[in-house]
Amino acid sequence: MATTEEMADEKMQDAHTPVSPLFGSCPIPIFEHRQIVLGHGSGGKLTADLIDKIFLPAFRNPVLDKLDDQAVVTIGGARLAFTTDSFVVTPIFFPGGDIGTLAVHGTVNDLAMSGARPLYLSAAFILEEGLAVDDLRRVVASMRAAAEEAGVQLVTGDTKVVDRGKGDQIFITTTGIGAIESGANISADRAQPGDAILLSGTIGDHGMAIMSQREGLEFEGAIESDCAPLHGLVAAMLAAPAPDGADFLHCLRDPTRGGVATTLNEIAKRAGVGMMLRERAIPVRESVKGACEVLGLDPLYVANEGKLLAIVRPEMANAVLGQMREHRLGRDAAIIGEVVAEHPGMVLMKTEIGGTRVLDVMFGEQLPRIC
Amino acid sequence: MKYLDEYRDGDVAGKIVAEMRRIQTRPWVLMEVCGGQTHSIVKNGLDQLLPEGVELVHGPGCPVCVTPLEMIDKAHAIARRRDVIFCSFGDMLRVPGSDGDLFTIKSEGGDVRVVYSPLDCVKIARANPARQIVFFAIGFETTAPANAMLAWRAREEQMANVSLLVSHVLVPPALEAILASPENRVQGFLGPGHVCAVMGYGEYVPISARHKVPIVVTGFEPLDILEGTLMTMRQLEEGRAAVENQYSRVLDRAGNLAAQKLVGKVFEVGDRKWRGIGTIPMSGYRLREEFARHDAERLFDVAEIATLEPEICISGEILRGIKKPHDCPAFGTLCSPQHPLGATMVSAEGACAAYYAYGRHLKPQGRDALHQIAGGTRPAAGGALWGDAGRA
Prior knowledge:
The complex is a heterodimer.
Chain A: H1 45-59, E1 71-75, E2 78-87, E3 93-94, E4 97-98, H2 99-112, E5 117-128, H3 133-150, E6 153-162, E7 170-179, E8 196-199, H4 205-215, H5 231-238, E9 249-253, H6 259-271, E10 274-278, H7 286-295, E11 309-312, H8 317-326, E12 334-340, E13 347-350, E14 356-359
Parallel strand pairs in A: 5-6, 10-13
Antiparallel strand pairs in A: 1-2, 2-7, 3-4, 5-7, 8-11, 8-12, 9-11, 10-12, 13-14
Helix pairs in contact in A: 2-3, 5-8
Chain B: H1 10-23, E1 28-34, H2 35-44, E2 54-61, H3 63-66, H4 69-79, E3 84-88, H5 102-107, E4 111-114, H6 120-127, E5 132-139, H7 144-156, E6 162-169, H8 171-180, E7 188-192, H9 193-199, H10 205-211, E8 215-218, H11 222-237, E9 243-245, H12 257-266, E10 267-274, E11 278-287, H13 296-299, H14 315-319, H15 343-346, H16 351-358, H17 369-374
Parallel strand pairs in B: 1-2, 1-7, 3-4, 3-5, 5-6, 7-8, 8-9
Antiparallel strand pairs in B: 6-11, 10-11
């Protein structure tokens, strides 16, 4: 539950003003859902609302309150990163990966975003009656390959089976532990005005790979998920030669659900800073751009599974960028904007054409527009 | 990206704006008709680029916004039925009715599905012969041909379990209503590109002539909109009022004749209620009698559903170009995309929603806040920012 995107701090703005009695019997729409709707799981505003109102009041403690992608705890003098994540993707096999690779990389990446070296994973499987054993075998083989690639061991697990129709083929929950060996102190609340915002590569690849598969769309140059373990890239970034110690990497996040826009909003709110991005600097693959245009979606809100955002002390930005570009997973890395003192809690973007716009948090599900 | 980047080039934009400056002798108020244009303007910050005194007001062309609340309530009543699979374009799912939205109904067990094409309903109907497939057929002339095709196929293939809940509206009667209003401020229109791709632009010629107002049919990319604005200004500065076509790479005067023919066979023109505006005579499509078996309003007992709208909401005036979102006392406080009180906050294409999502950092100062602050091409970030975001 300590994963980030689920735990955005929404205190600063958009506190929903109570409905004025002025309206009497007028049909004022309901934001307070009586049931869980799909949007509660989208990583956007509705998810944050659920966390603020239900989970945080119940479990509040200093570790959880940081609302990072992982909890960082000290046990017997060792700093450990600890995180968990559930995976419910449909279709379970997609170009560039499957639910198994995702389940390993997702948790490895949440650990990596603290600067930790991922060590051990657990995996819990909820299987739907009727799932083909061959499909399960394929998923497990992917998990094994992904774990090997990431250098983690899967050391414990659990299996449950539910009636046909009570699940969607296979749900996987992975939990991970990693060791923070460097002196890194990485947390969303550490972003400071002047810091540079770095992005490790093209955005939207994972989300659009899933969408095109789901919609049966074929695009020139097939879109593949970017699903990948990021701890190696993080280690490379931390190894950037710093003149005065290692504390130059202030925040790290992997922009999964809700995309780059939602993740940066979370950081801006946590740290009480503003951000100014340059649309022109944000790398988007042509095929992803095209698919987004066709489906009426904005790549800034589409999920990634092998990308990270880093907030870095300005004088170290180019050194870190250089380290990223040397790494296989950071070849297209770019500095996409700056942290600013103005408009705290808000992310703005200079558009390609020369205007400025607000990049808001995603509300619920991203919906295709009619025209 | 090919066919897109060419229309998003900042240098060309600068040249078009410079030409506007060169020819401008006085202030002008123009209206972009389409919601898609409004979205593009605010998303790209185009209104911040325009010369001072060139004001774009946002028109009635967001189909989600103008669909009346009672039609939403009818949709919800149908979607709640256990024998129904309710299919809709994506952005209708979040539109609140008097009691929740389609997402809520889905969470309560209703079978609500997002489709990209109305014809997806044919497949769904074949796979679910025991259930009623109802498609929420909304939109302007743009979506009418695909919606008409669904009704046509349903009748031809005798699919007794396919019906349409129709709430189609038409652009020309809305323009007439705006121009006929004594409060009208609009001096020229950026015409609806995609509507005209279907219908052609012949029907705008008499409107332009009768009201002596330039109408430039315009596309949706940033440079389309800037060029459409320049063409409209040029007509105004030269004292002309004609229909011109900026979007010639997509459409011509005649439009898509096959689509028009199909629409004519399936739909007939009738009075329609517009959310925020009221009933406009002969302003929408309804299914012809021959398609009565596929008319969801007749199949399901929803005729008596009627609703009231919040009084504070000024979306009617915004849709007619009389006011702007910042003029509303509820904007950003009582009314937000999460809590929409009216038409223009409901969809991403609505003017209020677009201002909220992309432009709420611009401090409103009276009637035409964006222009007073942005002051031509001066970037909006240059000191005119809200310290406390989202509480405009």
